[in-house]
Amino acid sequence: MVISPDSLNRHLTLMKSLGATFVALDQWLDKAQQGADLPRLAVAVTFDDGWQDNYQHAYPILKQHAVPATIFLVSRRINTDWQFWPEQVLNLLVNHADLLEHPALTWLSKEVDACGYKRQSALSIEQADAVIARLKSFTDEQIEGPLQEAREAIPALAELPRSRHLLNDQEMQEMQASGLVTYGAHTQHHYRLNRLSDSEQLRREIVVCQEDLKAKGLNTLPVFCYPNGDISQKGEELVKEHYRAACTTARGWNHSPAQPYGLRRFNFHDGNGGNALTFLATMGRPA
Ligand SMILES: [Zn+2]
């Protein structure tokens, strides 16, 4: 899921050479919803989760090309050294597989066994991905809780260095001041919304998230982004009530008149966009 700065630079250059007009997401929505003429090839750049590397690596390239972008933030994780559970599990399986024998990680080693992988020896990234895919049948809390307990029970795990990977206030303000970067809501805690049974919690993740961002003085578009692309009917009703559009993980172009609560995107990483050919093939492939 990683894209190198060189690839991002190449993508923007290539899109420009194809005649693309880079638009801010809200301006495109304004035009689409008013039925105004849209550019033949309009491109809106988005980033999910609010990673610090958006500031370190993507922002200089956006500035160089004067391309606007929207970053979807997880409001209660800003400024923290919090790690998404798939990152934590990946690190455990690839770099610290010896710890799987500890009783506090039995729940995880069971999943490794179920995939038919040998415990204790380090897993490859592909193998770790398969284990993470299995874990997605649980709720986020069902994984984050035991991970936290394991950190408390296993000193070697607690001592792993945790550096900050998410944006902080100063970085967000600096990008906003450039006029290029706007923000959108991506829940408070990055819980998958189709798995939340508590309706008050669902409301906080969807509605209060936007209030959190505004309270920070961020230029926040009324656009939501579903974590992992997942949403329930009740969640979608809340999104429709409080936002004017939502981004999904579905791949493809958005033809006007757009489905504003089901905006499609192309999720580029070096695996599907590392060179011009794969980049164009990814965009040309049917959804
Ligand atoms: Zn996300």
TrEMBL record:
Output the InterPro entries linked to this UniProt entry: Glyco_hydro/deAcase_b/a-brl, NODB_dom, Polysacch_Deacetylase
Keyword match Secreted? no
Broad class of where this protein is predominantly found: secreted
- One Pfam family cited in the UniProt record for this chain: Polysacc_deac_1
Q: Which GO terms describe its biological process?
A: carbohydrate metabolic process
One of the entry's Gene Ontology molecular-function terms is: hydrolase activity, acting on carbon-nitrogen (but not peptide) bonds
Q: Which PROSITE patterns match?
A: NODB (PS51677)
- One term under GO cellular component: extracellular region
Please list the residue ranges annotated as the NodB homology domain.
41-287
Keyword vocabulary terms for this entry: Signal
The organism sits in which domain of life?
A: Bacteria
**SUPFAM superfamilies per the UniProt record, alphabetical:** Glycoside hydrolase/deacetylase
Subcellular location per the Swiss-Prot or TrEMBL entry: Secreted
Q: Provide the protein name.
A: Chitin deacetylase
Please report the organism this UniProt entry assigns to the protein: Marinobacter nanhaiticus D15-8W
